[in-house]
Design a protein that fits this description.
The protein is of the alpha/beta class. The chain has eight helices and seven strands, in the order βββαααβαβαααββα. β4, α4 and β5 form a beta-alpha-beta unit. It starts with a strand and ends in an 11-residue tail after the last helix.
Length: 226
C-alpha cells in the first residue's frame, strides 16, 4: 500500500489572510515504511515571510528569489502524490494552504484520503500532547538534525512516527541454510512450504526430533495440506 507523508512551510499561519506556501516536502511510504523516494521544493512568493515563520524555518524571501512559484511546480506535486492517501500532522493546516494554492491557479482541491497523525497519536497513545517533537522523543527518534523546521525533514520524521503508530518496526531475520529449494512462501495466492536443512545435526537428533513432533496432539500444522 502506497501512502505519502506530506508537510509544508508557510509565510505565516493564515492562508485566508494572504499567507502562502514556501516549501513542500513529501516522503513515499510503502506498507507504513518510508522508501528512498521523496519530493521537496521551495516556492517563491511576493508575500513577506513573518518574523516568527523565519525563525521556525530559517527561510527568507531573499533565499526564495530564484525559486519557482507553486504554480510552476504544482504538477510535480500532483504527479508525486497521485490519488494515494496523505499522512499529515495537523492536516487542517497544510490542507488549507495546499487547497488555497490550487484555488489561486484555478485547480480543484485535493481529494486524497487524509490520515491526520495528531488524531491518530491521540487515539493510539491516549494522550492530549501530540506535537511532532513530543512524539519523536516518545519513540526515541533522533531529533538532532531538527535545528530548524523543514518540510522534507519533518516529513521524514513524521514517517518514522507514523510507522511506530501503526505498530512499530519489524525485526527481519535473515536465516541462512545450506539448502533452500523453495524461495516463495506465497505465489499466485498459493502457499508453498520452505525447505530448511538443519546444519551440524546428527542422525540421533533428527530421529529424536521426529518422535517429539509426532507425539504432539492436535498440532496446528496438521490442519494444512502442502
Amino acid at each position: 500500500m502506497r501512502e505519502i507523508v506530506l508537510d509544508t512551510e508557510t509565510t505565516g499561519l493564515n492562508f485566508k489572510g494572504g499567507d502562502r506556501i514556501i516549501e513542500v516536502g513529501c516522503v513515499e511510504v510503502i506498507n507504513h515504511v518510508a522508501t528512498k523516494n521523496s519530493l521537496q521544493f521551495y516556492c517563491r512568493t511576493n508575500k513577506k515571510i513573518s518574523t516568527d515563520a523565519q525563525k521556525i524555518s530559517g527561510i527568507s524571501n531573499e533565499f526564495l528569489k530564484d525559486k519557482k512559484t507553486f504554480s510552476e511546480q504544482h504538477l510535480i506535486l500532483l504527479n508525486f502524490i497521485k490519488d494515494d492517501p496523505l499522512i499529515i500532522h495537523n492536516a487542517e493546516f497544510d490542507l488549507g494552504f495546499l487547497n488555497n494554492e490550487l484555488n489561486i491557479i484555478g485547480k480543484a482541491p485535493l481529494r486524497n484520503k487524509i490520515i491526520d497523525t495528531v488524531f491518530l497519536a491521540r487515539k493510539v497513545l491516549n494522550t492530549r500532547i501530540a506535537n511532532l517533537d513530543h512524539l519523536c522523543r516518545r519513540f526515541n527518534i533522533d531529533l538532532t538534525k531538527r535545528k530548524l523546521h523543514g518540510a522534507l525533514l519533518d516529513a521524514h520524521l513524521l514517517a518514522e512516527v507514523y510507522l511506530e503508530l501503526r505498530g512499530g518496526k519489524q525485526i527481519i531475520m535473515d536465516l541462512k541454510t545450506e539448502e533452500n529449494k523453495y524461495q516463495d512462501f506465497k505465489k499466485n495466492n498459493r502457499l508453498y512450504k520452505k525447505k530448511i536443512t538443519l546444519l551440524n545435526t546428527g542422525e540421533e537428533d533428527i530421529v529424536s526430533h521426529k518422535l517429539m513432533v509426532k507425539s504432539i496432539k492436535e498440532a496446528l500444522w496438521n490442519k494444512y495440506n502442502y
